[in-house]
Amino acid sequence: MALFKRRKTGRPGEWFYCLEHRKVEEGPECPAKDRMGPYASRADAERAMETARERNAEWENDPRWSEPSAPRGDDTP
């Protein structure tokens, strides 16, 4: 008998995308470490991976996060 059980977080009515099973779920089905969300609707949860790709692309192309390339000189003696 386990003294401490891992509690799943989330509530019914909240939508998540499970990274392990690659499926949308409502409420606490899988552990929080394996989920993205919560999302407001099932449709938003279904787009979770696409939304993540879009946000990653925006971040990678954001000039505020891009460091200018340093000029490379020949520093060898």
Briefly say what this structure is.
Residues 28-77 are annotated as: Disordered. With 77 residues, the chain is an alpha+beta fold. The protein is 23% helix and 17% strand.
Shape estimate: elongated
Biggest sheet details = 3 strands, antiparallel
Strand order of the largest sheet: 2-1-3
Portion of residues in beta strands equals 15-25%
The CA-CA distance between the termini, in Å, is 68 Å
Low-confidence regions = none
Helix content: 10-25%
Please state the structural category: alpha+beta
Count of DSSP-assigned helices: 2
Rg value = 20 Å
Order of helices and strands: EEEHH
Give a count of the beta strands, DSSP E runs of length 2 or more: 3
Residue-averaged pLDDT: 82
Structural overview:
The chain is an alpha+beta fold and 77 residues long. The protein has a domain at 15-60. It has helices spanning 42-46, 48-60; strands at 15-18, 23-26, 35-39. The longest helix is centred in the C-terminal third of the chain and has 13 residues, at 48-60.
Structural features:
single chain, 3 strands, alpha+beta, 77 residues
What is the secondary structure topology, with strand pairs?
Layout: E1 15-18, E2 23-26, E3 35-39, H1 42-46, H2 48-60
